[in-house]
Amino acid sequence: MRLIPFFLDYTINDMTCIQDYRQLLEDLDAEIDRVAQMHAGLTSCGPGCASCCLPFSVLPIEAAIVHETIDALPSADHNHLRRNLEDTDRCPLLNDDLCSIYAARPVICRTQGLPLAYVDDELETIEVSACPLNFPDNYAFTPEKLLFMNGFNTRLADLNLAWCREHDLAPDKRILLTDILRSASPKA
């Protein structure tokens, strides 16, 4: 008997959160595409680049989507990923340096490599975080060439809060990708 992990136990009533989360990803992907086009030729990111793919944790709503996607993988892929659990320095969801859940990857994975901007209204500043493999420390970013994350992060936090309220979960509890993989069962 397989126990459903606490972060995956959702019903049709929760589908609004899931649909809204998927809409968030669509909106984020559109903005990612816009910013990536502005930096075409500068970024070394692409299929097979796994420099940023570390084992990390995600919010419960993201964990539910990741779990569902892992469950849908063929047994052979699932078995390969389970062997990855031994390597604690890399994301366990990599298969030959490619993301095995690429279409369902969490927000943090989607934004890797791009120049991310965070507005601090209190200090009236913009903090920029950029991959050193793509952009040298002295690279001058203009606002239109930045991926502003505040709005996306707020939407993600709001969706996660709604999800957690429905499931009586702590919204600040993060779930390790390794734990999600351990709890998943491959399709037959």
Shape assignment? globular
Distance between the termini: 15 Å
- What order do the strands of the largest sheet run in, or round the barrel if closed? 5-4-6
Secondary-structure element sequence? HEHHEEHEEEHEH
**Mean pLDDT metric:** 87
| Estimated share of beta-strand residues | 5-15%
Number of helices: 6
Number of domains: 1
The helicity comes to 40-55%
Helix/strand-derived class?
Answer: alpha+beta
What's the alpha carbon Rg, rounded to whole Å? 17 Å
Task: List its traits.
6 helices, two-stranded antiparallel ribbon, three-stranded mixed beta sheet, 7 strands, 188 residues, single chain, alpha+beta
Describe the structure in your own words:
This protein is an alpha+beta fold and 188 residues long. It contains 6 helices and 7 strands. It has helices at residues 15-38, 60-71, 75-84, 107-111, 150-167, 177-183; strands spanning 57-58, 94-95, 98-99, 116-120, 125-129, 147-148, 175-176. A 3-stranded mixed beta sheet has the order 5-4-6. It has a two-stranded antiparallel sheet with strand order 1-7. The longest helix has 24 residues, at 15-38. The mean pLDDT is 87.
